[in-house]
Predict the 3D structure of the following.
Amino acid sequence: MKSIETAKEFSNQKIELLRKGLKEVITGEGSSIITCGSFARREASLESDLDYFIMIKSSSETCEPHWCNAAYKYIKNIIPNQPAANGAFANVVNREEILTNIGGNDDSNKNITRRMLILLEGEWLHDAEELKSLRKEILEKYIAKSMTDHQLALFLLNDVIRYYRTMAVDYEFKTAGSETPKPWAVRNIKLIFSRKLLYASGLFSVALTADRSRDRKIDLLQQLFELPVIERLAQICGKSQMNQVLKTYNYFLEKLEDSSIRKHLNLLTKDQRSDPVFRELKNEGHHFNHELMQLFENTFGLTHPIRRAIVF
């Protein structure tokens, strides 16, 4: 499908440029750069920004590698659109922040966002092995040694669900509850398409952990999470079963790669929900939801434990 393939090719080209250049910029060991978002999912276009963060191992809260400014400059030269200021990205993050306080009082929205995105769509820009190691450690936190073979990875499943619901709540705050509301229409459409597909990929992956040993659960999830979201779902469900989902998703990518459509959506106010451009995308989103639900039902039968787990 044209827009999916175009986005994949564009994303791969930019990622390779970033990897090559950052290898020359970054000196020393102990730090990595991880990207998430549309580039990591291989869905980016010229309109996309680059969500990323620098991961450090130092225990010092103020330890910022000396090469950070050079890295920021190089990244901006390749991808001019930058992530939102004061958000979860384009920051230096201590590795321990990701691995501690999971579910505790100090588990902030930024922490769960970074942790879930590392698992579900993280891609390396510098140090592939560090991302692989970090992802495994996160999974080991979620999947306890005491877990029996027949159990689902429920701790992980609950956080996948929590993250998806957090995104929905965060959308309401940023577009209505904040003192300076942000453009809402593109965020609304992304919740329906890309955010939902990411959630589905986590849900379907956890479903496969039923009736497997603890070590096999971790190994399987590592393999799946190393794949971009679309490829992951195709491996779980079968490529032929993905046809209708991908057809609708291709439509979404085609519209959002059009700068005039993005601009139009960003200028809409919330009382313009009947706008024909927004309405067409929204209606296609309802169809996308139906196709995803059909894919779930076709992949996991009525007796599969994932069905009970996501309801009760």
Q: What stands out?
A: The chain has two domains: 1-142, 149-312. Residues 19 and 199 are 27 Å apart (CA to CA).
